[in-house]
Amino acid sequence: MTTADPVSDHAPVAATAADVYRPQADTYLLIEALRRLPVTGRRVLDVCTGAGPVAAASAELGARSVVAIDTCPRAVATAAALRPTGPAWTCVQATVADFAPAAPFELVTCNPPYVPAPGPGIDCPSPAGPTQAWDAGPDGREVLDALCARATALVEPGGSLLLVQSLLADPAKTAMCLRDDHFGVTEVLRRRIPFGPVLRSRRSWLVDCGLIGPDQWTETLCVLLARRETSEGPR
C-alpha cells in the first residue's frame, strides 16, 4: 500500500480520524475501474467503505442509491458525513458476514483488507494506524473469503461485484470461488506499486513465509469484475 493522488482529484472524503483507513493506491485503482462501468440509476453497496471515497464516486457517477458498510464505527461516521447530493445515502456498521440487506444490489464494490498478517506472538511490527483495515490473516483472505461466501446474497442476478486486492492474497482463488457461485470473472485492471509502510514493516516475515522473493520491493494490485449469471442452473 502506498500514498497516491490527492483525494479531491477522485471523490470527496471527509476529514478522517486516525483509525479510519485513508484512500490510497488501491482505492484509486478501484475508482478507476468503477468509472468504466454503467453506474447511473443503479443500487450500489460499498463494502469496507473506510472514509467513503468509493461510495462517493458511485454517487458522483449517478447511482440511484448507495449503502456503505464498515466494521469501524468512526469509518461509518466519516462516510456518513459526506452526504452527497442526489442518491439515497446510508452508512451502516456491519461486517461482511453479518450484513443482511433487504434485497441484493445491482452493483457491489469492495476494497477489503487483504494484507497477509502474522498470528499472535510473532514479532512483526506494524506501523501505527487502523490495522483492521489491512490485516487479513496469514493468507490475506479473511475478508475476501467471507465476501465470496456472501456474494450471491449481496449481488442480484445480472448484477456485478467489483473488488480490488493484492496478488499476495491469491486473486485466482477469489475468481475460482466466485465462478463456483455462477459469476463470470475477469481482471479489468492491474498495477504494480512500491511497498508502503505496512508491507515494509513485515517484509522479512513475508520473505520467510515464501509470500515474496528476497529482492521484492513491490506488490501488484488487481481489480476483478464478477458478473452474476441471470440463470444459475446446474453446470
Automatic annotation (TrEMBL):
One Gene Ontology biological process: methylation
The keyword Protease is assigned to this record: no
Keywords assigned by UniProt, alphabetized: Methyltransferase, S-adenosyl-L-methionine, Transferase
A matching Pfam family: PrmA
Organism superkingdom: Bacteria
TM ranges: none
Gene Ontology MF annotations: protein methyltransferase activity; S-adenosylmethionine-dependent methyltransferase activity
This protein's GO CC annotations: eRF1 methyltransferase complex
InterPro entries: Euk-Arch_PrmC-MTase, SAM-dependent_MTases_sf
Name recorded for this polypeptide: Methyltransferase small domain-containing protein
